[in-house]
Amino acid sequence: MAFDQTLEGQLYLGIDGGGSKCRATLYNNKLDVLGTGVAGRANPLFGLEQTFESILASTEMALRDAGLSLNDASLLVAGLGLAGVNVPRLLADVQAWQHPFKTMYVTSDLHTACIGAHQGGDGAVIITGTGSCGYVHVGDESLSLGGHGFALGDKGSGAWLGLRAAEHVLLQLDGFAEPTALTERLFANLGVSDALGIVENLAGRSSSCYATLAREVFAAADEGDKVAVGILREGAAYISEMARKLFTLEPARFSMIGGLAEPLQKWLDADVVARLEPSLAAPETGAVLFAIQQHNKQSAA
Amino acid sequence: MAFDQTLEGQLYLGIDGGGSKCRATLYNNKLDVLGTGVAGRANPLFGLEQTFESILASTEMALRDAGLSLNDASLLVAGLGLAGVNVPRLLADVQAWQHPFKTMYVTSDLHTACIGAHQGGDGAVIITGTGSCGYVHVGDESLSLGGHGFALGDKGSGAWLGLRAAEHVLLQLDGFAEPTALTERLFANLGVSDALGIVENLAGRSSSCYATLAREVFAAADEGDKVAVGILREGAAYISEMARKLFTLEPARFSMIGGLAEPLQKWLDADVVARLEPSLAAPETGAVLFAIQQHNKQSAA
């Protein structure tokens, strides 16, 4: 997609909304960044009102960052990549929103991340941060894998690593599982000294809270802790298998993004790592490229 | 404990509060049931206000059932067995409550369940319903195992069986795991036809919601489904190991209670099943026996 297809003087907003936060970036028609904003989670699966609030809050921040105000939202062509809208009912709910934008185009956060990673071109992407999921888009074909959310799925993600570590430590403290350096690491990380302390800190908490424990799993594994190594191997094996499933559509490019993309790399299979290429642009840029693409389609029609 | 230690004309209230509901039973000093009530969940870990509301709502139902009103709560010696109060901060929170009773004695739901199962005597108990946990009390010694809550622990529980089934089905639908009869069973149970339908029905839901899927695991295993058999074997192995750990305190009696006690039995190890004895009284009765025991101690002091 060529940027000269954008309209002179038009402002664009890219939204990347997920289970832990919502990022908004304001661009001019050359895709220069004019302002950025970040707010709370924007996953319609966990609340439509909160999603809209997070979108508006991050948009307002991005507009102010550029010397504008929320009133100027009516000038914006907005592209929204949101978690959860692969559920048709939730996509319809978001599309029915009385939004403040000039026009609004909505798709999944996976789709916009993939468009961003390959700067508008075809390709495959795996996102491993708080959650985990994969997406590939080649011509008219696409495939989405994983992304079922915590604690149902998201194997190999930060939240999954944290949950598996906490599960093992609680079993170990009751005498059901082998000792692990994760026990002392979780105690120190949470500032507690027994199983009750762990439960009190984690019970009913969000996936983001569990994901903060992932660094302990990587650190313990680096020191040779067998339990941490076992957890990481299981998670990484799933991510490697996911990559190979995405490769069946023969994408020209493959990137991994998210906070765990770098630390997970050494645990992935060599054939997967060999195909890794850098992500070219952020998911918010992908959201804007998606909006421009849709806007041009509609203008041409 | 002899019932003639109770006070002539005194009314007693037994509360069994957990993650899915709160049961209240009103007794006279012969431990005849005068009235019963049930309300929503009463686990301080998930909200103190809700816990107090559920206790009051179930108490009011039990009092009305006996032809009394909530104003008569001031006549009651109340025993409360509550989930979550093994966390010292939460026990203190509950004990600081401006409760409406004549006197109130609080302990864990595990403790009162154990007292009930053995009619006030020493013994061991495993509770497998929505959650799973074990408790043994012999003389001055006691041991509590598991009960760390969904999705941190509670292996072998209804919620754990349901989560494991849903996890496997979602992996299977993405092509990561072997086929299983659980897929069609979960579709039918939830009234959906794809992975998104499962996610939409289960994401962010309570442990009780997951526990409703446990029956599909038992049914599929009965028909020989390998995946269901594997899940049940793993859960049951944990429960059997928990029982043997409780036996180290040499309890005179051992009972299992909760909705899964009966269906799980055929999956448990023979040495554990051989020691199973019927539960003699309900956890609410255990709560009252605890209150009477504490009340007599204080009166004697």
Automatic annotation (TrEMBL), chains A, B:
Gene3D superfamilies: 3.30.420.40
CDD domains: ASKHA_NBD_GspK-like (cd24082)
ATPase BadF/BadG/BcrA/BcrD type domain mapped to chain residues: 13-291
Name of this protein: ATPase BadF/BadG/BcrA/BcrD type domain-containing protein
Signal peptide coordinates: none
InterPro entries (alphabetical): ATPase_BadF, ATPase_NBD, Euk-type_GlcNAc_Kinase
Superkingdom of this protein's organism: Bacteria
PANTHER family from the UniProt entry: N-ACETYL-D-GLUCOSAMINE KINASE
